[in-house]
Amino acid sequence: MKITAVIPVRKGSQRVINKNLKPFGETTLLENKINSLKKVVNLSEIIVNTDSEEAIELAIKLGVSYHRREAYYASSECMASDFFKHLGEVTDTDLFAYCPPTSPFIKSSTIEQSIREFLLNPEYDSFATVSNVKHFLWLDGEPINYKREFQPNSQDLPNIVSLNFGLNIISKENLIRFKNIVGIKPFFKVISQVEAVDIDTELDFFIAEQINNKYLNF
After folding, report:
1. Rounded-to-integer distance, Cα 99 and Cα 183, Å
2. CATH number, position 190
3. Is 139 within a domain?
4. At a CB cut-off of 8 Å and minimum separation 6, what does 64 contact?
5. Helix-strand-coil percent breakdown of the chain, rounded to 5?
6. What per-residue confidence (pLDDT) applies to 216?
7. Quick check: 217 pLDDT over 70?
8. At 24, is the secondary structure helix, strand, or coil?
9. In-domain check, residue 122
10. How many domains does the chain have?
11. Per residue, what are the HEC states of 70-124?
């Protein structure tokens, strides 16, 4: 079985400009991710999927594959579902591992073990790392995970989880079929708060730098 890790890198990131290639500690988010994935023994190939020539040059330098993304699939006009389907269509693999560089702290050992766990549990059609959400959530003026008149302690809220995009695994066939990196019967794995860090904003980037520099010493 061919298992391919795909690292999505968009040149036109909006909330944090060029976040995947800007300095992060002594490296960049993209270089950090490539080097981390190269330690995962059960991966067949690593592909940087990007519209950035700088990212392609780095992929070549570090000895991994790349796919030059068409402009539409790197634009804000492209919905995530269409992008995911396209990723499946252009990636030659059996099993697809979605590994964004914006999750810099998920360990190589976690990815390696997660692949093994997924392969040992064929009743699931996909795998996703998740985080527990113990917050009081509201929508349209009403609480959605508790009753206003019976507000619990936060630790007693329902076991809601959120995708943190540390790692998602799905077959190429299901990625195209569902147009999503999560199928209809996913295997959810809760990971630590540090491994679950997902950089989306300038504040996220700043916090990740503090973790990287002061606690992990990457």
Report:
1. 17
2. 3.90.550.10
3. no
4. 34, 37, 38, 45, 46, 47, 48
5. 30, 25, 40
6. 61
7. no
8. strand
9. yes
10. 1
11. CHHHHCCCCCHHHHHHHHHHHCCCCEEEECCCCCCCCCHHHHHHHHHHHHCCCCC
